[in-house]
Amino acid sequence: MALSASFLIRQGLRCGRIIQASNAAMVVQLRRLHDNKAVLPRLPVPALEDTLEKYLKTVKPLVTDEEFAVTEEIVKKFSAPDAIGATLQKKLLERARNTENWLSDWWLNAAYLDCRGPVVVWSSPGLVFPLQEFKTLDDQLNFAAKVISGTLDYKTMVDQKTVPLDRMGKDILDMSQYFKILGTCRIPGVTRDTIRFYGQEPNLPKHIVVAHNNHFFKIDVYGKDGKALNVKQLVHQLRNVVERSTHPTIPVGILTTQNRNVWGKAYKQLRKDKTNRASIDEIQRCIFLVALDGPIVNPTGNIMTDAALNCVHGNGPQGYAGNRWYDKTIQFIVGKKGAVGLTYEHTPAEGPPVANLMDHIMDYIEKKNGSQPPAEELSRPHRLMFNVGADIKQDIEDAKVALESLVGDLEMTCFKFSEFGKNFIKSQKLSPDSFLQMAIQLAFYRIHHEPGAHYESASTRKFLYGRTETIRSCSVESVNFAKAMLNKETPNAEKVAALRAAIEAHKSYAKHAVNAHGVDRHLLGLKLAAIEAGMDVPTLFMDVGYLRSSHMRLSTSQVPARCDAFMCFGPLVPDGYGCCYNPRDDAVFFGTSAFNSSPETDSATFREALEQSLRDMQNILLQDGLKAKL
Fold it and tell me: Alphabetically, which GO biological process terms does the record hold (predicted)?
């Protein structure tokens, strides 16, 4: 039967309405799921006996038999029915009943706001974007404008709660960190810092701040009509900033690199001036900061390492450290020659939401077609002025000296391992992350001939306001594997068996950790419960087993990205290494670090040991595969 045109039109309109209704329903559902309280369980308090059993297993490879016997006795006394452990466990359970997340406030303070060391090197990571090649100022400003535009596009998704939900298997993950990275700033204090989420306050910020030659400019990124500026308009604004800041000014921003107590005191002094206070408020309230840098200072010859160091510390007073405000959560860095990335203040979020933002920006830059309509009635970039008296000038000089020492101490080696990536590891039916963790363990043992306490961050975002738990990657099995690999007499089949056993042990611990049944956060809670109650800190926390197993000589994290990028950070301890990695299908990007002041560690040596470990691990698996075919 022939269908009339009017019928087809009516059906088409009806289908359109159904699709629109379906899309609207999906958006409503997505927004409901973004409301974590409606769907996510609360962070559990593990059973005390389970935590202590795991704890002893993680201590064993790091202490002597005599030391382990002492630790066992201390744990036995701590966990007795009427002992202090049971008392503190009850306090934790009570706290869990009366809070949405028993750890979150404690963690914010203990891990970040109470820490008085500089955020530079010791806390704030860098994230290096795929490296660009700029030949002209136009190239640099165009890219910077696209980064800004892409971030504002992402912000729209965040504001509308349409960011795709993160999942771990079938489990929806807590998305609250996504709402805390834009418009956020850490505020220095004399003994404890605070944090402000301006992006969640009624009067939402509508501006960014651009730094160039240590000058700061406020740029309104929305026109009078409420539309975001398009790329062409943003380039115009950036060019105006550059033209009005051709010579460096006093680097007030370098104060943010100081010890937090020192910066807290200088901050109080700086804010006494009305002009300074107004400028600081605009920086703190901005959606994010963009630093326009010149060429890399003191290049190492490795462009990846150069970009990483510039992201982490700006290459110090002689570089671009004064062209930053390190208290801001997100600071994009766009260098003159194409070194591009960001540094982020770690307090409100872990790496994945930040890497997700970067992926969105890179996709936006690659896929953006056509021109966005211009916003109406642009306002001229507003220079943020500072009145710097004698006291603040001295504070700036002191900050330069302190930072110079820190910059001189940190050394990094960043590289792309191109011989294989996730695909090969998966072809062996192994976990890529566990495989890479065992390569890091083997590299450490290869250099130092002993195991090292090893931190890997695990996400606990399956739970409301979850942050991280520690995967203690050093195990009896990982030590047995390292010994087998470095023993020429060990048969290949035994090496493969040791590798698989070590990977299974790591996978098992990682599974416990993501389900909030690790060791470290529970022990921290017990310790803080004692302190909060005015009790003595239990002997458990002063024992050699605890001290050695929590002195993380290896600080590691997997931060996957959809592009050729990598995150980087400094070591956790003076005689340790930092190692962050992004596994790709056929390569792995690594950012490694160590301190020059430690005679035991060197990041270039660690790179060599890590690459050799990866090759050796691949070789034993390939040999095992060939043998199986014969």
Answer: carnitine metabolic process, CoA-linked
Segments in 124-172 forming alpha helices (H): 137-159
Q: For residue 215, what is the enclosing H or E element?
A: strand 215-220
DSSP 62-79: GS-HHHHHHHHHHHHHHT
Instruction: Name, in order, each residue with C-beta under 8 angstroms of 305's C-beta and a sequence gap of 6 or more.
Output: 412, 413, 414
**Is there a contact between 361 and 151 (Cβ–Cβ < 8 Å)?**
yes
**DSSP string over 420-486:** --HHHHHHTT--HHHHHHHHHHHHHHHHHSS---EEEEEE-TTSTT--EEEEE---HHHHHHHHHHH
How many residues would you count in the chain? 630
Give catalytic status of residue 346 as yes or no: yes
Residue 353 has pLDDT above 60, yes or no: yes
Q: What is the mean pLDDT of the chain?
A: 94
pLDDT value for 34: 63
In angstroms, the CA 292 to CA 53 distance is 52
Nearest-angstrom CA–CA distance, 472 and 628: 33
CA–CA distance, 381 with 216 (Å, rounded to integer): 10
Crossing angle for the helix pair 603-629 and 476-486, nearest 10 degrees?
Answer: 80
Q: What is the pLDDT of residue 377?
A: 81
pLDDT digits (tens, 9 = 90+) for 551-570: 999 999 999 999 999 999 99
Distance between CA atoms of 543 and 146, rounded to whole angstroms? Answer: 53
Q: How far is CA 281 from CA 215, 229, 330, 571, in A?
A: 15, 23, 16, 32
Tokens representing residue 215 in the block:
């000058």
User: pLDDT per residue over 391-439, tens digit each?
Assistant: 999 999 999 999 999 999 999 999 999 999 999 999 999 999 999 999 9
Please tell me the distance from the alpha carbon of residue 128 to that of residue 292, in angstroms, as a whole number: 15
Q: How far apart are CA 443 and CA 436, in angstroms?
A: 10
Work out the number of other CB atoms within 10 angstroms of the CB of residue 97: 10
DSSP codes joined into one string, 239-263: HHHHHT--S----GGGGGGS-HHHH
* Closest by CA position to 284, among listed 388, 384, 393: 384
DSSP classification of residue 517 = -
Report the pLDDT value the prediction gives residue 626, as an integer from 0 to 100.
77
Catalytic residue among 346, 506, 512, 517: 346
Please, which residues have CB within 8 angstroms of residue 13's CB and are 6 or more apart in sequence? Answer: none
Task: Please give the residue that has the higher pLDDT: either 6 or 140.
Answer: 140
Span 531-558, average pLDDT: 98
Task: Give the Cα-Cα-Cα angle 48, 53, 55 (nearest 5 degrees).
Answer: 95
pLDDT number for residue 367:
87
Per residue in 203-242, pLDDT (tens digit) is 999 999 999 999 999 999 999 989 999 999 999 999 999 9
Q: Has residue 6 got a pLDDT over 50?
A: no
CA distance 212 to 332: 12
